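Notebook entry, structure prediction.
Reason for the run: the old model in the group folder had no record of what sequence produced it. Starting over properly, with the input documented here first.
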Amino acid sequence: MRVVAQRVKRAAVWVGGESVAAVGPGLLLYAAFRSDDDAAALAWMADKVVSLRIFPDDAGKLNRSALDGDGEILVVSQFTLYGDARKGRRPSFDGAAPAETARRLFEEFVDRLRASGLTIRVGRFQEHMEVESVNDGPVTILLDSPTARSPLTSP
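New structure, fully documented this time:
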């Protein structure tokens, strides 16, 4: 599993000109899944995301997490995070889970995030989305679950 976490002042998802999800200050997550992702990977990632200390404390140091009351989370599925462009000019997405599997994993990941008690909003799975965000910092962190294969070793 792979997540790109961005600290944002605000973020929104639009589908076909319709606003489908929006958050104020908090996190924008882009999430991608592999076929071999399991419940342990989802649990690890959900805990990592909500506990990730990327919000400033009163001294300006990154010591606060979303659990410390620092905002909402918008989750967007993005299989292209597993794009492998090492060969040729067109990325291969063979490392990404098939849509049916990815949908199940995405929904379980979102459920695990919701279990934290935080406000969680989601984009629309397998839809063409326009994602709008105002990054804060900017602070952007790439997270791979401990069981994820490195994109540099194998698809």
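Summary: The longest strand covers residues 130-144.
The old model has been moved to the deprecated folder.
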